[in-house]
Design goal:
There is one protein chain. Strand 11 (about 220-225) and strand 12 form a beta hairpin. About 25% of the residues lie in helices and about 30% in strands. The chain folds into 2 domains: about 1-60, Spermidine Synthase, Chain: A, domain 2 (Roll); about 65-285, Rossmann fold (3-Layer(aba) Sandwich), CATH 3.40.50.150. The protein has helices at about 65-75, 95-100, 115-125, 145-150, 175-185, 205-215, 250-260, 265-270, 280-285; strands at about 10-15, 20-35, 40-45, 50-55, 55-60, 85-90, 110-115, 140, 155-160, 185-195, 220-225, 235-240. It contains 9 helices and 12 strands. By secondary structure, it is an alpha/beta fold. Helix 4 (about 145-150) packs across helix 5 (about 175-185). The structure holds S-adenosylmethionine (SAM). S-adenosylmethionine binds near residues 59, 113, 114, 170 and 195.
């Protein structure tokens, strides 16, 4: 793509399920490369800043990435009473790690990302997202999260599965075997948060992935947030634990005391994210535990 400030015809179009499309007007291509795993692109857009794409699927846009990353990190970290050790599977853009590492009490973050090219592209071209890669508390492992979890060895307070959609190397990140391995890595009061796709477009996938988690965890929840970058505009994370309730055990005083400058997440948003509309209760209500709202 050439510089296209004067090219109103230049659009990035992500086609979803061969049925709907999400579009961004493009200014220029910033990075394009191919790894053994996928095609990785960063493009500059007119309205959303830089956008990261893996295999043509939008991973994030600079305009709204804070919503996704604040919600994937702070929700579990302000429910767990003392999160010190955090595992991130995927998340190669660095946004989830950036938010986790804002918690001063977190001592160690292990991030297992399969594709070094995603990390390299984000370090060079999305530095505000990839802001925490040099933090000494972060250990970066380039490898398959499924194999890492199966190998075991270390215990974590919070595991965050910041995966792309279930195609290619991310497919097994939605399977029962992977969740079984992850359950074994979690401390007794540990929390698992998983990227859980669109309540509008992916209800049957959500049913499958959450049914696997239901068989392993005594407590299972789903929480919602808006997105400008994924089809449908409403997205979800799974929240699984052996006992912690994401609303009753949420520590709003610790959030206040942390004094973080956040642009989406706050105490009211935390609680409200677990309020589920009829369409979600219809498809997933039988799998999820209620929360006191
Ligand atoms: N949140 C974004 C979304 O839903 O579009 C995705 C964030 S992040 C960029 C997803 C990352 O997961 C990608 O960089 C991809 O390379 C990585 N990934 C996919 N499969 C993986 C696996 N089996 N192990 C580790 N990382 C994996």
């Amino acid at each position: 793509m050439n510089d296209a400030a004067n090219r109103p015809d230049l659009w990035l179009r992500e086609v979803h399920q061969d049925a709907v499309a999400l579009g961004f007007r493009v200014v220029r291509s910033v990075f394009s490369g191919r790894s053994d795993h996928q095609q990785v692109d960063v493009v500059e857009t007119v309205a959303h800043g830089r956008v990261l794409l893996n295999d043509g699927i939008v991973m994030l846009s600079e305009r709204d990435e804070f919503v996704y990353h604040e919600m994937i990190a702070h929700v579990p970290l302000f429910v767990h009473p003392a999160p010190r050790r955090v595992l991130i599977i995927g998340g190669g853009d660095g946004g989830a790690a950036r938010e986790v590492l804002r918690h001063r009490d977190v001592e160690r973050v292990v991030m297992v990302e399969i594709d070094a090219l995603v990390i390299e592209a984000c370090r060079r071209h999305l530095p505000k997202v990839a802001a925490a890669f040099d933090d000494p508390r972060l250990e970066l492992i380039i490898g398959d999260g499924v194999a890492y979890a199966a190998a075991g060895g270390e215990t974590f307070d919070v595991v965050i599965v910041d995966s792309s959609d279930p195609v290619g190397p991310a497919r097994p990140l939605f399977d029962a075997g992977f969740y079984r391995s992850v359950a074994n890595l979690l401390a007794d009061d540990g929390i698992l948060v998983t990227q859980a796709e669109s309540p509008f477009y992916d209800a049957s996938l959500q049913q499958r992935m959450l049914a696997h988690q239901r068989s392993l965890f005594p407590r299972l929840h789903l929480y919602l947030f808006p997105t400008l970058s994924y089809p449908g505009g409403l997205w979800s994370f799974g929240f699984a634990s052996r006992g912690l309730c994401p609303v009753a055990d949420f520590d709003a005083r610790r959030l206040d005391a942390a004094g973080l400058a956040l642009r989406y997440y706050n105490a009211a948003v935390h609680r409200a994210a677990f309020a589920l509309p009829g369409l979600v209760l219809e498809s997933l209500g039988g799998l999820l535990d209620p929360v006191p709202l």
